[in-house]
Amino acid sequence: MEKIYNYINGALVEPVSAQYIDNYMPAEGRVYSLIPDSDKRDVANAVTAAQAAFESWSGMTVEHRAAILQRVADLIDRDLDALALAESIDNGKPVSLAKVVDIPRASSNMRFYASGAIHFASETHITGKEAVNYTLRAPVGVAGCISPWNLPLYLFTWKIAPALAAGCTVVAKPSEITPMTAFLFSKLCIEAGLPAGVLNIVHGVGPKAGQAIVEHPDIPAISFTGGTVTGRSIAATAAPMFKKLSLELGGKNPNIIFADCDWEQALATSLQSSFSNQGEICLCGSRIFVEKPIYEKFVADFVKRTKELTVGDPLDSNTRIGSLVSQAHMNKVLSYIDLARQEGGAILTGGKRVIIPGRCESGYFVEPTVITGLDHQCRTNQEEIFGPVVTIMPFETEEEVLRYANSTPYGLSATIWTENLKRAHRVAAGVKSGIIWVNCWLFRDLRTPFGGMKQSGVGREGGWEALRFFTEAKNVCIKL
Ligand code: NAD
Questions:
Q1: Among 7, 258, 296, 461, which one is most buried in terms of CB atoms within 10 A?
Q2: Which CATH architecture has domain 2-249+456-479?
Q3: Ligand 1: which of 90, 157, 175 to mutate, judged by most atoms within 8 Å of the beta carbon?
Q4: What DSSP string runs through 401-412?
Q5: Does the CA dihedral 272-276-281-285 come out positive or negative?
Q6: Does 248 qualify as catalytic in the annotation?
Q7: 480 residues of the chain, pLDDT tens digit each
Q8: Ligand 1 pocket test: which of 157, 222, 225, 386 has the largest number of ligand atoms within 8 Å of its C-beta?
Q9: Are 415 and 273 in contact (CB under 8 A)?
Q10: Strands 142-146 vs 221-225: parallel, antiparallel or unpaired
Q11: Cα–Cα distances in Å, from 356 out to 42, 246, 258, 266, 413?
């Protein structure tokens, strides 16, 4: 069976324990490769390598660093098909989606931060005729980057690229549930000539390998994307050590549809924002609020289109909904559908596991599910399900929908559909979310700040924000 290796000090190596854990192919429900079960000894080796590489990497000209990162991006582009296939096999997502979203965005992360670092400037403040203050920004040192399973290579590179571009060396851990593309990425880094020790990838489970990264005294900055409960535990460990922390956490995002929306656009995009990647995107709009005059028609049309989505083999190009990432996650999603029933919800379509005949018959497939008849305060509408499940609720006024939208502990993203410009601005200002899309969804400009409010996270990634995060600012004041 294929073995995945850690990438430490420029080499692919076994874990110190020589122990491996099973890696599942979710569409077939079977083990297909093995992952290092790394522990604090592997993390310690990775930190030692990263420390040794820091001086020359951070001292290299930014153009030279950028050129190496661009080469990594070129290799991602060269291997796009193979990486998309690996991502689909590892995660269960349709290969067609991995080809147009996950892998191209991984390559743009590398390119964006390679060139971003070249254009990064620090501030100067002229204090009248008395003084000049300028800000010196130096890379923080060894950065810890920990990522989740839903957009594996995309979110892994989203953290690593700015850290490396800023001049940090890195110890990174991808999710143990989807480690394969990070492993392939480590091979591309070797091929691209990334100097040994600059990036180190330690595979393994969160409470062991992840925790060892967070606890390590020589890692002063942690960039984490994952669940809110994990984020809380990471913050509890890192805060007393005064580490820099960036936490990108869960969401329960509102999708607000006013009666004056562009009907076709709102409907088609809401279908995507509900069910893309099996609903396993932190930015999916899992609570749809529809203004009363169009509520009945929206529900009818939305259910009709949901029924047309093909659930199937992720490797089939017609498949729109692939497999959920694991059996445990499938059971969690199904248990929320049961909860919705108990809370009085009506399941208008979906609600069950799907058995796909043939190679995928043991896979973890769930029908796209639409639920109505629930109050905004019930658990189904308060807790993150992270699967192909949406609820639809009617509203009458802006004030009412803002109250519903803001009623969860989360505040990651929101979508607003209206052709009324003033209303769009008003509602965007009123929604407590870090990212708000008006008449679109998942549109990204990498220069914009990205992150959540409330329990959806602390800090902002994206653009200069990420480059600032991985640097330490020093002010130099010169008296004139
Ligand atoms: P998770 O929190 O279970 O795991 C994320 C990563 O943290 C994994 O690599 C895991 O091994 C590691 N980890 C677990 N325990 C750890 C510990 N004690 N110390 C250090 N590391 C630890 O999350 P998941 O199930 O992989 O991902 C799904 C969650 O991620 C959802 O809640 C989703 O909303 C969220 N997410 C958020 C964003 C965002 O940008 N805000 C993006 C994608 C996913």
A1: 7
A2: 3-Layer(aba) Sandwich (3.40)
A3: 175
A4: HHHHHTTSSEES
A5: positive
A6: yes
A7: 899 999 999 999 999 999 999 999 999 999 999 999 999 999 999 999 999 999 999 999 999 999 999 999 999 999 999 999 999 999 999 999 999 999 999 999 999 999 999 999 889 999 999 999 999 999 999 999 999 999 999 999 999 999 999 999 999 999 999 999 999 999 999 999 999 999 999 999 999 999 999 999 999 999 999 999 999 999 999 999 999 999 999 999 999 999 999 999 999 999 999 999 999 999 999 999 999 999 999 999 999 999 999 999 999 999 999 999 999 999 999 999 999 999 999 999 999 999 999 999 999 999 999 999 999 999 999 999 999 999 999 999 999 999 999 999 999 999 999 999 999 999 999 999 999 999 999 999 999 999 999 999 999 999 899 999 999 999 999 999
A8: 225
A9: yes
A10: parallel
A11: 40, 40, 37, 30, 33
Show the tokens assigned to 455.
């329990």
Distance 228 CA to ligand 1 centre (A): 8
- How far, in Å, is the centroid of ligand 1 from the Cα of 219? 19
Element containing residue 233 per DSSP (H, E) = helix 228-238
Tokens 């959540």 found at = 452
> Does residue 261 contact residue 230 with C-beta atoms inside 8 Å?
no
Tokens, residue 190: 């070797």
Considering the domain 254-445 in this protein, what is its CATH number? 3.40.309.10
280 is catalytic: no
CA distances to 5, 152, 358, 362 from 327, rounded to whole Å, are: 24, 18, 18, 10
Q: Give the burial class of 242: count Cβ atoms within 10 A of its Cβ; 0-12 exposed, 13-18 middle, 19 or more buried.
A: exposed
Asked if 169 contacts 142 with a C-beta cutoff of 8 angstroms, the reply is yes
Q: Give me 443's structure tokens.
A: 């549109």
Domain boundaries, the chain: 2-249+456-479, 254-445
Atom number, ligand 1, closest to the C-alpha of residue 452 = 41
